C-alpha cells in the first residue's frame, strides 16, 4: 500500500467528545464501563477498514478545572484504564490498530513497555501507544511522590511554567526511550530451544539497556520477548513547539490540531523543521489532523444537532481540535482539501457515540472511496504495515553484529 | 455436603518445572497458548486462571540464566485479553506491590474487574531485592522488614480506592441531565508511612467491589498479612502433613482479625502426572523429572547450593568434595533463597548420594524433583479429595509442566471423577470469582463507606 493512502483513525472517549453527548446518545449512560461497548465501536470502525482506534485516558477525573474535579454532575465522569480496554478488545478484532493512551509522568517505564509489548503480542502486531504527560497537581497527589504546582492555562509563557513543561516533556522523552530500548532488548531470534546444550535462549541475544537519566534508571532486559511489530507504533498529540520536538524525536505518528488548510500547512512545515533540528532518522512522522466531527444528512440537521447539544450542555463546545459540523460529503471535501497541506490523514473525534462513528464508517468512508482517497479493505499485516512504516531493525542486533 | 474443592490453572512458569524440550511443548508467549490453557480450565469449570510474575530476568554468575523457559507477557494486559475469550473463569495475576503504586494498580484491577464481569484477582507479592529494583524508579531501597508494612498499606489504600465511588454514584438520568448523583465522586485519602495520597479515583465501583486478594509468602509476617487481608493463600505446602500444619497455623490466626475460617482459602501449588496404570504414571513421572532436570540444569542447581562455579563437573559423576562457599555474595539472583544452612544441606546430599549410589543429576532429581500427585485418574482424584477433606488445603493451583496442553488430561479424566464424588461443581452457579470461591460479598473497609 502506497504512502499516499489516506490514514483514518477514530478517537474513542466515553459516549463521545461533546460534553452533552450522553444526553442524546442511544447508549446506556454507563456503557463505557462495559467491554461490549468498546468491542462494538471497534468492530464498527473495523468494518470500514479504518487504520486504528485511539483510546483516551488520564490519571484524574475528567474535569474542566485547572486542578482536581470541577463539580459538574451533568457530564460523564469516570473511566477505565485505556490499555486494558485495548487488550480486552484485541481478541475480538482482527485488523484494526489499537492505540491506548498512558501517562508516563507517574508510571513506571518498565511496566508501560511490557504492557504495550503484550498488547502487541495479544493483537498480533496491532498495538500503538500514545504516551502523555500528566501536568496536573491533582494527578501528582494521587501518587504522593512529587509536588507539582497548579498550572494556570492562561499564563503558559510564565518562565516557571515553561521550565516545568520542558522538564515534563524531557522526562516523557526518557520514558519513551526506555520503553523503546526494552522492546529491542530481546532480539527476534533470542529463543533457540537448543536441546543439545540445554539452552532455551541465547543470552547473547538478550541485552541490558543500561539507561541512566535524571528521573530514573532502568537496567533491562525486558521480561517480554520482542513484540511482533518490533516497535509498536508510538503517537503523540501535539499543539505547540515543545511537543512537536518531542514527537519528532520519539514518535511515529503525530496528532495535530490545525484550524484550517493553511494552518495545517504551517504545522506540517514546523514539524518537518523540528525533525531536522532533532536529527530524526527513519521514516518521517505520519501527521494526522484531529477533527471533532458532528455529522448529519444535511448541513441544517447537523447545525441543529450541534445547537441541541450546546443547549443541553448549557455552554458552547470548547475543544483543542477544530469542530466540523456538516454532512459526510462536506467532510470528505474538507479532508481532500486539507490533505494537500501534507497531512497523512486524520483522527476523527466523534461528537456523539455511536452516531457520529456510524456516520464516519457508513457515509464518510464510502464518500472517500468514491473519490479514490481511501482503500477498500485491509491489505493484511501489522499496524506498522498499514501506516507504511517498515519493521525497524533491532538496535542491539545491529550493535552485536557490527 | 463434603467440602468443595477449589481448582485453579497456573500458566507454566519460567523455571525448570516447565519442560520446553518436549515435542509437545508450545510457545510460552503466543496468545494462542494462553487461550488454550484458559479455555481448558473453563471447560473443566475451574475457579480461576493464574499467572506468576518476575520483573527481572534471573541471573547466575552475573549472566542471564539461559536454561529455563523465559519471556512472558505483562500480567494485567494478558488477563484483560483473556477476559474476551472466557466467560466465567476467574483471572488471577501476580503483581508485585513493591514496584507499583496503589492509585495505578487499583484502577487497573478495577478495570479488569469491569472488563471481566467480576472475575479479577490479585496475588500480592512483595519481593523487594535491589536486583529487581534496578528496573524501576523506586530502585531497591525498601528494607525487607518493611515489605509487608508496605503491602498492608498498599492493600488497604487499594480497597479504599475501590470503595471510593458510592454504589449509586452514576444515575445517568437524561431527562434531568444528572449524570452523577453527587459532584466529584471517588474521593479518597490515605496518609501512612508508606503512602501519603489523596484525590479522586477514576473508576466507578466494579462488580466484585473488592477483586479477590491472594497472598503468596511463607514467613510469619507473610502469614499474618494473609490472615489480616487476603481471601486466599497460594502456598507451597504440597504434602499432607506440612499442609495440615500450615492450614492449622494460618486458619488459627483469623480469629484475631475478626474473621472466620472460611474467609481465607488455602490453595497450594501442585503437580499431577496421570497414567492408565500406576506403573505407567510412575514411569511418566520419572521421564518428566529427567526432562525438568537436564544435565546443565542439575549442575546449575548444584551451583546454587554450593555458591561456586561447578561447570567443570560431570553431571553423572559424584558430588563435589569441597564445601559450599558461605562467605561470598550469592551467585544466583532473581530467585528466592532456598537453603538455610548450605554446608549442612551439602553433607546430607553427599550422604544420600553415597547411600543410593547417585550421580549429581540423579541426586538433584531425588532432592528437588517434587511431583505431588502421580497415579491413575482414580487414584489422583481420591488423593486430592482426601487432602482437602482432611484439611491440608481448600483446593489446588495446578502447575502443568507443558504449555499449553498440560491440563488437557486432567480436565478430561480427573474432573469428572471429582464431580462424581460431589466435591467439585458440575456447572458454574455464580458469575464472579468471589462467588466461585464462596467468599460472600466484599466487606467495605473505609470508614466513609461504612458510615455512609
Ligand atoms: C507459592 C508461591 C508462589 C510465589 N510466586 C511469586 C511470583 O510469581 N512472583 C514473585 O515476585 N514472588 C512470588 N513469590 C514470593 C512471595 O511473594 C514472597 O515475596 C516471598 O515468598 C518472600 O516472602 P516471605 O518472606 O513471606 O516468604 C511466591 C511465593 C510462594 C510461596
Brief description of this entry?
The complex is a heterodimer of chains A (402) and B (452). With 402 residues, chain A is of the alpha/beta class.
Could you explain the architecture of this structure?
The complex is a heterodimer of chains A (402) and B (452). With 402 residues, chain A is an alpha/beta fold. Chain A has a single domain, classed as Luciferase-like domain (TIM Barrel, Alpha-Beta Barrel). Chain A has an eight-stranded parallel beta barrel with strand order 1-2-3-4-9-10-11-13, surrounded by eight helices. In chain A, strands 5-6 form a two-stranded antiparallel sheet. In chain A, α7 links the parallel β9 and β10. In chain A, α7 crosses α8. With 452 residues, chain B is an alpha/beta fold. Chain B folds into two domains: 349 residues, Alpha-Beta Barrel (TIM Barrel); 75 residues, no CATH class. Chain B contains 15 helices and 17 strands. In chain B, the strands form five sheets. Chain B has an eight-stranded parallel beta barrel, surrounded by four helices. In chain B, strands 4-3-15 form a three-stranded antiparallel β-sheet, with no helix packed on it. Chain B has a two-stranded antiparallel ribbon with strand order 7-8. In chain B, a hairpin with a 2-residue loop joins β3 and β4. Chain B is globular, with a radius of gyration of 23 Å. Classes of the chains: A alpha/beta (402), B alpha/beta (452). Chains A and B meet through α3, α4, α5, β6 and β8 of A and α1, β4, α2, α3 and β8 of B. Flavin mononucleotide (FMN) binds next to β5 and α6 of chain B. Chain A: Belongs to the NtaA/SnaA/DszA monooxygenase family.
Number of helices of chain B: 15
Determine the CATH superfamily of the largest domain in chain B: Luciferase-like domain
* Name given to the CATH architecture of the largest domain in chain B: Alpha-Beta Barrel
| Overall pLDDT level of chain A | 96
In CATH terms, the superfamily of chain A is Luciferase-like domain
Distance between the termini of chain A: 32 Å
Helix content of chain A: 25-40%
Domains counted in the coordinates of chain A: how many? 1
Q: State Rg of chain B.
A: 23 Å
β content of chain B, as a range?
A: 15-25%
- Judged by helices, strands and strand pairing, the structural class of chain A is alpha/beta
Enumerate the strands of the largest sheet of chain B in spatial order, edge to edge or round the barrel. Answer: 1-2-5-6-11-12-13-17
In percent, how much strand structure appears in the residues of chain A?
A: 15-25%
- The quaternary organization reads as heterodimer
What is the total tally of β strands of chain A? Answer: 13
What is the averaged pLDDT score of chain B?
A: 94
Amino acid at each position: 500500500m502506497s504512502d499516499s493512502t489516506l490514514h483514518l483513525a477514530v478517537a474513542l472517549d466515553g459516549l463521545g467528545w461533546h460534553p452533552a453527548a450522553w444526553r442524546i446518545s442511544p447508549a446506556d449512560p454507563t456503557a463505557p464501563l462495559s467491554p461490549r461497548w468498546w468491542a462494538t465501536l471497534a468492530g464498527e470502525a473495523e468494518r470500514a477498514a479504518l487504520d486504528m482506534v485511539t483510546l483516551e485516558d488520564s490519571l484524574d477525573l475528567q474535569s474542566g478545572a485547572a486542578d482536581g474535579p470541577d463539580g459538574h454532575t451533568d457530564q460523564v465522569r469516570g473511566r477505565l484504564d485505556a490499555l486494558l480496554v485495548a487488550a480486552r478488545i484485541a481478541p475480538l478484532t482482527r485488523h484494526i490498530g489499537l492505540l491506548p493512551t498512558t501517562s508516563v509522568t507517574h508510571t513506571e517505564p518498565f511496566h508501560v513497555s511490557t504492557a504495550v509489548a503484550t498488547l502487541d503480542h495479544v493483537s498480533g502486531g496491532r498495538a500503538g501507544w500514545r504516551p502523555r504527560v500528566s501536568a496536573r497537581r491533582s494527578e501528582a497527589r494521587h501518587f504522593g511522590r512529587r509536588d507539582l504546582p497548579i498550572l494556570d492555562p492562561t499564563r503558559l509563557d510564565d518562565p516557571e511554567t515553561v521550565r516545568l513543561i520542558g522538564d515534563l516533556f524531557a522526562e516523557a522523552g526518557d520514558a519513551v526511550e526506555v520503553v523503546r530500548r526494552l522492546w529491542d532488548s530481546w532480539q527476534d531470534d533470542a529463543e533457540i530451544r537448543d536441546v543439545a546444550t540445554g539452552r532455551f535462549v541465547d543470552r547473547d541475544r538478550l541485552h541490558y539497556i543500561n539507561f541512566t537519566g535524571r528521573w530514573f534508571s532502568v537496567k533491562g532486559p525486558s521480561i517480554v520477548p520482542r513484540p511482533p511489530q518490533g516497535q509498536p507504533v508510538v503517537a503523540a498529540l501535539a499543539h505547540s513547539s515543545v511537543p512537536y520536538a518531542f514527537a519528532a524525536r520519539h514518535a511515529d505518528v503525530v496528532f495535530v490540531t490545525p484550524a484550517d488548510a493553511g494552518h495545517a500547512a504551517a504545522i506540517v512545515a514546523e514539524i518537518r523543521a523540528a525533525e531536522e533540528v532533532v536529527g530524526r532518522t527513519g521514516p518521517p512522522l505520519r501527521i494526522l489532523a484531529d477533527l471533532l466531527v458532528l455529522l448529519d444528512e444535511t448541513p441544517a440537521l447537523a447545525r441543529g444537532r450541534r445547537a441541541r447539544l450546546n443547549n443541553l450542555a448549557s455552554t458552547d463546545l470548547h475543544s483543542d481540535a477544530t469542530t466540523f459540523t456538516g454532512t459526510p460529503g462536506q467532510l470528505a471535501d474538507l479532508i481532500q482539501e486539507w490533505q494537500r497541506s501534507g497531512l497523512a490523514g486524520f483522527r476523527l473525534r466523534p461528537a456523539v457515540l455511536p452516531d457520529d462513528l456510524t456516520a464516519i464508517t457508513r457515509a464518510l468512508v464510502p464518500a472517500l472511496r468514491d473519490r479514490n482517497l481511501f482503500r477498500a479493505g485491509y491489505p493484511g499485516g501489522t499496524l506498522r504495515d498499514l501506516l507504511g512504516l517498515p519493521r525497524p531493525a533491532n538496535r542491539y542486533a545491529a550493535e552485536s553484529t557490527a | 455436603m463434603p467440602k468443595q474443592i477449589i481448582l485453579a490453572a497456573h500458566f507454566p512458569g519460567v523455571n525448570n518445572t516447565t519442560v520446553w524440550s518436549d515435542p509437545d511443548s508450545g510457545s510460552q508467549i503466543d496468545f494462542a497458548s494462553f487461550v488454550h490453557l484458559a479455555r481448558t480450565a473453563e471447560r473443566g469449570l475451574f475457579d480461576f486462571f493464574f499467572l506468576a510474575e518476575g520483573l527481572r530476568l534471573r541471573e547466575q554468575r552475573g549472566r542471564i540464566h539461559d536454561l529455563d523457559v523465559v519471556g512472558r507477557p505483562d500480567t494485567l494486559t494478558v488477563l484483560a485479553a483473556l477476559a474476551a475469550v472466557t466467560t466465567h473463569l476467574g483471572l488471577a495475576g501476580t503483581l508485585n506491590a513493591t514496584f507499583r503504586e496503589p492509585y495505578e494498580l487499583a484502577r487497573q484491577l478495577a478495570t479488569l474487574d469491569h472488563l471481566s464481569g467480576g472475575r479479577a484477582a490479585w496475588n500480592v507479592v512483595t519481593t523487594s531485592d535491589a536486583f529487581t529494583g534496578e528496573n524501576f524508579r523506586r530502585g531497591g531501597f525498601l528494607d525487607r522488614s518493611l515489605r509487608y508494612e508496605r503491602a498492608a498499606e498498599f492493600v488497604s489504600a487499594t480497597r479504599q480506592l475501590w470503595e471510593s465511588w458510592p454504589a449509586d454514584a452514576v444515575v445517568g438520568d437524561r431527562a434531568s441531565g444528572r449524570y452523577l448523583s453527587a459532584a466529584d465522586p471517588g474521593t479518597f485519602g490515605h496518609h501512612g508511612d508508606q503512602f501519603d495520597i489523596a484525590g479522586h479515583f477514576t473508576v466507578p465501583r466494579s462488580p466484585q467491589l473488592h477483586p479477590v486478594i491472594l497472598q503468596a509468602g511463607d514467613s510469619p509476617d507473610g502469614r499474618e498479612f494473609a490472615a489480616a487481608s487476603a481471601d486466599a493463600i497460594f502456598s507451597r505446602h504440597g504434602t499432607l502433613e506440612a499442609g495440615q500444619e500450615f492450614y492449622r497455623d494460618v486458619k488459627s490466626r483469623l480469629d484475631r482479625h475478626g474473621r472466620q475460617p472460611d474467609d481465607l482459602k488455602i490453595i497450594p501449588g501442585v503437580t499431577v502426572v496421570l497414567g492408565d496404570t500406576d506403573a505407567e504414571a510412575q514411569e511418566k513421572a520419572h521421564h518428566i523429572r529427567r526432562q525438568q532436570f537436564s544435565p546443565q540444569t542439575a549442575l546449575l542447581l548444584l551451583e546454587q547450593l554450593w555458591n561456586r562455579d561447578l561447570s567443570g563437573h560431570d553431571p553423572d559423576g559424584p558430588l563435589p568434595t569441597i564445601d559450599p562457599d558461605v562467605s561470598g555474595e550469592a551467585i544466583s539472583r532473581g530467585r528466592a533463597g532456598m537453603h538455610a544452612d548450605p554446608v549442612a544441606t551439602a553433607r546430607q546430599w553427599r550422604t544420600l548420594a553415597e547411600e543410593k549410589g547417585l550421580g549429581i543429576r540423579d541426586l538433584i532429581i531425588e532432592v528437588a524433583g517434587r511431583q505431588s500427585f502421580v497415579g491413575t485418574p482414580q487414584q489422583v482424584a481420591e488423593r486430592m479429595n482426601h487432602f482437602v477433606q482432611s484439611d491440608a488445603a481448600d483446593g489446588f493451583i495446578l502447575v502443568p509442566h507443558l504449555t499449553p496442553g498440560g491440563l488437557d488430561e486432567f480436565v478430561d479424566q480427573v474432573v469428572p471423577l471429582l464431580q462424581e464424588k460431589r466435591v467439585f461443581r458440575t456447572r458454574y452457579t455464580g458469575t464472579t470469582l468471589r462467588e466461585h470461591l464462596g467468599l460472600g460479598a466484599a466487606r467495605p473497609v473505609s470508614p466513609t463507606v461504612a458510615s455512609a
